[in-house]
Write a structure and sequence with these properties.
Elements: E1 7-11, H1 12-17, H2 25-38, E2 43-47, H3 52-55, H4 61-69, H5 83-95, E3 98-100, E4 121-127, E5 131-136, H6 149-154, H7 165-174, H8 182-191, E6 197-206, E7 209-214, E8 217-222, H9 234-237, E9 243-252, E10 257-262, H10 268-273, E11 275-276, E12 287-288, H11 298-317
Parallel strand pairs: 1-2, 1-3, 3-4, 8-10
Antiparallel strand pairs: 4-5, 6-7, 6-9, 7-8, 9-10, 11-12
Helix pairs in contact: 8-11
Length: 318
């Protein structure tokens, strides 16, 4: 690959994680410097996702902050559609640049058909005793048998497959989006009873709160449990990527959701004996008053949430 490139947008989060489970700012720097040395006339723009600075080694964070302040690294604005990947491709599309990444961006194939043009997508890997090696590549296409959301909407059912309107309404009401995969949710419920204090990173905004990443699971933090008094807007109160001290105040097994509160904001009933009822995405869940005679123990409520989630998954498979 000896042809020079006018401009290359580096998918920093992807390159920094190549061959690793967590991103490394040092690895990203080595890759960018190696690329600039091999192609000295190329303009390089390095993009990382909004949570990059919180996932790298804490010893690299000061260097990361300096790189952001000096515009050596660029992060997408809060709430950007497509997050880091979408921002990388938007920049490349605007300036007709190539992209350095080992990602195939399958969800963007219909929008950016130039990904399949020769020289628009490059890959890179560190090779032992050699260093970074860069090569032209083509993205892996979506499998032919895998239908996209848009294609499903265009498919008309056969008359024999059409169900009565009542059946359709009943089915729609029983379906709820799952916030977490089953096993990580069950493991979290088993290890963390209501009242457990945790730390989480703000992942995305919702209409009445934020979604927070706690290890392998995502939880929901509503505005009313974010501060006292409750802020008018989550965007004005917390930033994406911010680390918060939280407490588990309930579970919603039907959505595999973990309900959260900022430490000190939750009420005694929410932190000790409160339970959560099912709520739709972006809607505050209501607290169920605890029975004064025999309040359930946190471990029993956790087991109940675990059993309910398993039962919901079993019914779905049937």
């Amino acid at each position: 690959m000896n042809k020079a490139f006018a401009h290359v947008v580096v998918d920093g989060s992807n390159i920094a994680t190549e061959g690793r489970s967590d991103p490394s700012l040092r690895q990203l720097n080595e890759a960018v410097l190696a690329f600039m040395k091999e192609f000295p006339g190329t303009k390089v723009t390095v993009v990382v996702d909004a949570t990059f600075g919180h996932r790298i080694d804490r010893r690299e964070r000061a260097e990361f902050d300096a790189a952001i302040n000096n515009n050596e690294l660029v992060a997408p604005p809060a709430g950007a559609v497509g997050r880091g990947d979408g921002f990388v491709l938007t920049i490349a599309d605007k300036v007709k640049a190539s992209v350095l990444s080992n990602d195939s961006y399958q969800e963007f194939h219909d929008q950016y058909k130039w990904l399949f043009d020769e020289g628009r997508l490059l890959g890179g890997k560190p090779v032992p005793n050699v260093g970074w090696v860069f090569i032209r590549r083509l993205p892996v296409r979506k499998q032919a048998g895998r239908a996209t959301a848009s294609s499903v909407r265009r498919i008309k059912p056969r008359p024999s497959a059409v169900k009565p309107p009542v059946a359709k309404v009943a089915t729609t009401k029983s379906v709820h989006p799952k916030l977490n995969e089953l096993n990580p949710f069950l493991n979290f419920v088993e290890k963390n009873s209501i009242g457990t204090k945790v730390r989480g990173v703000v992942e995305s905004y919702a209409s009445h709160g934020v979604y927070v990443k706690i290890g392998e699971v995502s939880g929901y933090l509503p505005l009313r449990l974010m501060a006292k008094p409750a802020p008018r807007s989550a965007r004005e109160h917390v930033k994406l990527g911010a680390t918060l001290s939280l407490v588990v105040v309930g579970f919603t097994p039907s959505r595999r959701s973990v309900e959260l509160s900022v430490v000190g904001v939750e009420t005694p009933s929410e932190s000790k004996v409160g339970a959560r009822v099912q709520g739709s995405r972006g809607t505050q869940a209501k607290s169920v008053p605890a029975k004064t005679s025999q309040p359930k123990k946190p471990r029993r409520r956790a087991q109940h949430a675990k059993n309910t989630a398993k039962k919901a998954t079993s019914n779905k498979k049937r």
